[in-house]
Amino acid sequence: MAETKQSISLSVHPSSCLVDSKIEIDVKHLPANSKVTLHGRLNSDDGVEWEAFGHYVSDSSGTVKVSRDKSEGGTFEGIEPMGLLWSMRPVPESKPGCRFQKSNVQTPVKVFISVYEGHIAKVYKYLTPLTSAPVERWYLASGVQRVEVTERGIKGTLFIPSGSGPFPAVLDLSGGQGGRAEHHSALLASHGYVSLALEYIGFLNASGKLEHVDNAYFETAFAWLKKHPKVCPDKVAMMGMSFGVSVTLAMTAYSEIIQPRCVVCINGNHIMPLSGSLADVYAALQQNVDKIRYDEKMRLIWRDLLLPIPEDPTKKIQISKINCPVLLIVGEDDQNWPSSESAADIKKMMEKAGNSHLLTLLSYPGAGHLIEPPYSPHVRFSHFKLLEAKTKVMMVWGGETVSHSQAQEKSWQKTLAFLEEHLYDNSREITKC
């Protein structure tokens, strides 16, 4: 292939776009019916290098079109237009337990697509590609504002779409890792929603001890978001992931202040009603530590902590009190929380209460706990910081790569459609608040 190297072309379109956008990858001017390897790599914000690759054979005209042609091997197989992204994994020399998560949403995910001669599987850094092309993948669309929030005792980051507004809004609650995860909120703002990524776990007081927030904290945050001049106050939703689901459902059911237009819940449960402080939840979980399981490599599996689902209604959030539309997203291979069992019980409770018409349940076989925006690398297990113990453990999240990746793409499309329906009233024009 040496005599054709100069003429080989690689096209990646668009070369800069949002992370939930598809890209077209084409290679032209190869010898007919030649074997090549397409390779994708990126460096995450924490310095870990991720990669994916697929084995292709050019057609009679010397072209490989990833959206049309099958990968015959690699980190993915078959016709997978976005396989070079969702099948990414840490390079072999990486430490175990890496999780891909964008910490700085103001910079793009920089992906490099390369073409190599032959079907190869490793040591790419010692090889010279036939051609390469960079791609920028953004969580933050042009014109979206990012604002640090420290008002009225709340901590978070507010993302405001470009334009005069007012806009619908989302109060975004991430999971039990603590800190502040901004990637969901940044992407929501890129699609036309003011979004507040609220920090609510892992606060340290002056003496360095954990300080757990109470229900008033979430009520303050919701009320503050409603009153923001860029927000249409009667079009505010909540979105919870993992631990954030418990907060979202509890606040929606019990609070007189938090009355969202709709809620989105991703892989959580309704078995942890909040009664004053998150400290109560931690205490309840610690009583069930004997239910923790381990896999063959002694990685933690938490899904049994809250099983079996209690029959006693006082031990569950009173779902019957919820009177707004609920989108419940479930990975059936979630190894962290009993999401499937919880969803089935929520459905039963809502049917009994006569409000099942408010529930949209999306359940995905083979999907694990960490359902992220489309084309994000699947992570079956990773390090997790236990806040009370101030130590890191290896946590099993579950999921099979192909099924999980399909669930990420489908559930995100359904989420945007759900928010559009209930916050924009099927119209992008909001003229009155």
Describe this structure in words.
There is one protein chain. The chain has 433 residues and is α/β, with parallel strands linked by helices. The protein has 2 domains: 6-138, Acyl-CoA thioester hydrolase/BAAT N-terminal domain (Immunoglobulin-like), CATH 2.60.40; 145-423, 3-Layer(aba) Sandwich (Rossmann fold). The protein has helices at 83-86, 183-190, 215-226, 243-254, 278-286, 339-353, 401-423, and strands at residues 9-13, 16-18, 24-28, 35-43, 49-57, 64-65, 89-90, 109-117, 131-138, 145-149, 155-160, 167-173, 194-199, 203-204, 210-211, 231-241, 263-266, 293-294, 300-301, 326-331, 359-364, 381-386, 391-396. The strands form 6 sheets. Strands 10-11-13-12-16-17-20-21 form an 8-stranded mixed β-sheet, sandwiched between helices. Strands 2-9-8-4-5-7 form a 6-stranded mixed β-sheet. The protein has a 3-stranded antiparallel β-sheet with strand order 1-3-6, with no helix packed on it. The protein is globular, with a radius of gyration of 23 Å. It starts with 8 loop residues before the first strand and ends in a 10-residue tail after the last helix.
